Amino acid sequence: MGTNIIMAIWSFKRKRYPDGSLNKHEARLYAHGGQQTWGQDYWDTYAPVVTWASVRILLIVAKIHNLESKSINFVLAFPQADLDVPVFMELPSDVTPIDEVDDNRQRYVLCLNKSLYGLKQAGDNWFEKLTSGLEDIYFLQSQVDSYVFYREGCIVLTYVDDCIILGKNMAVVDSVIQTLRDGQEDFELTDEGSIDKYLGVMTKDINENRFEMSQPFLIRRIIQFLSLDKNTCWKASLDQRP
Questions:
Q1: Partner of 118 for a Cys bridge, out of 14, 30, 177, 185, CB 3.0 to 4.6 A?
Q2: From CA 95, how far away is CA 92, in angstroms rounded?
């Protein structure tokens, strides 16, 4: 009695590459974190996010020192982490217990065994697991940017479930990926290969000394949303002449 029971919510998205082309359709089950009560079913919520200054600096360092790189993605990252307190959730929509003929779904609740998207503490739980996994293989956490980890010959830059791994050679990079898969934390991840489409940003090598970062799809969407096409901008400039 008195236990907080939160709603379950389905989320459907179309994920796209930086150029706007379709990557995949994604369906996720979320917990309604807005119905959680602090001190009862969550405590800490903080999880750091890498700064773009760190991303740019590390890519520049990789270019200068000819470091090898790969990006990886942790599959359903948040549910890979354990919960720190018990959380109870209603049955998701369209899910009916097999023994219920009258669809009386309110007789049942789910006790979550793992963290779930939407929970207040989900980001914090995941970051604790990721930090533990990296420290187990001798990475140190940067005191300047909490989402950057390093050890001799290798740097890992993380943004929630997306990571860039930089190493002095590809054998070092592949070794880190394999160790994360086989380590104590038993991460489930995919090797995304090139970092040319990291976090919605296209990275293109121009020559051995230069590279370019762009977000063409995002820029087009902003221009369309604000009606800033060429004709509109030209008319506005004419209207503003003295």
A1: 30
A2: 6
